[in-house]
Amino acid sequence: MTRYVVRGGQRLSGTVRVAGMTKNAGLKQMAASLLAQGTTVLRNVTPVVDLDVMIDLLRGIGAAVEWAEPEVLQITVGEELEAEAPYELVSQMRASINVLGPLLARLGHARVAMPGGDNIGSRKLDMHFAALVAMGAELEVLHGFVEARCNALCGARVVLEFPSVGATETVLTTAVLAKGQTVIENAAREPEINDLCEFLTAMGARIGGAGSSTIEIEGVDELHPIDRAIVGDRIEAGTLLMACGAAGGSIAVEGVDVEHVEMVVRKLNEMGMTIETTPDGLVARADEPLRAVDVQTLPYPGFSTDFMPLAVALLTRAEGTAIVTENIFDNRFAFVDELNRMGADIRTEGRHAVVRGVERLTGAPVRAHDVRAGAALVLAALGADGETTVLDTRHVDRGYADLPSKLASLGADVSRVED
Ligand code: EPU
Q: Does ligand 1 come within 6 angstroms of the Cβ of 196?
């Protein structure tokens, strides 16, 4: 068991560099490296807990995965691969589903455990499956596994019902080796998708429209391994900016593409923070009490669902009442009860939360339900009176490479305790 102990009341100052986006971009590119024989090198990869799960999964499939040096991962893929992803690993991490497309494209069959729902919602895979069927695969869900087979994958026009990040990734990593053209309509536009497209293009894939909602892929016969750095973590950048909002102070955040955090910066400015772009990234300042603003989550470039719990943490002490609407996941408000234990005044009704700002929060033992909810509790604790213990922080470590150290480097009183 790991917990974080946070003593509130320290203002933040200093400069911090964000890590590579290992969880939401790097893991996908690791899975996509199965598409090419040879050794792919990924740089800017930080050791988060989910990375270990993907390393185990790729090793089980037959790839050799090693650290070449800190933050540089080397993945060697041979001709022979196992077509199966077991439940023990898939159930720990949803990004495991990202091996389905590459295995099907390389081997003509794949057997991947169904991940099931998790702490933030039901998380179906119907759009992934419908797209693979449109491309010529036969799919069956049997005994908790999805079994996919195909003789030849053919390009297809895939219209996504919703701009799903995962479904867009599955189509991309299958279509690159299919015969003919695939067009994804209503594709996700998250920067992680763009980064995956750039990764695949460097491998020899032919992709047009990356970053827009229509992506065209012309299948090629084979791809080659590459050496490339993954994109800076926009969610970590947003988390650090909001940490400054929660604790007060002034910080500089480097290593992120400022366009990737445009919407969160806009909201934080509306709340009364001052965030400015510099040649190296962003400088944020929070001097005054924050003001309540309404927030609704939407696919990129809208306000990301991954920032929602963090925004709620800030709104707990803002002046006024805010309505927060979650449009992406169906169960992402479980964490508000933990904030209420710290003295927040939040009521939820379906997809909405009403957050009434209070004068102060007080430290308490609280529990992290998922990665962003855990980070939100840490942020709330930075601005709370006294000591907060955040339990179950393994969830936070799934996506952040040592959040306590990063915050401590900015002057926060946060430490990690291993039992
Ligand atoms: N959905 C379906 N059918 C599908 C696919 C998705 O109904 O076939 C629904 C989901 O149930 C969900 C919504 O569509 O309600 C959005 O799902 P999406 O596929 O876009 O998300 P994801 O690929 O499962 C990734 C990130 C999430 C992030 C979302 C949205 C990873 C590993 N996960 O999930 O990250 O919130 O995109 O941007 O990349 C996090 O980092 O904390 C996190 C949850």
A: no
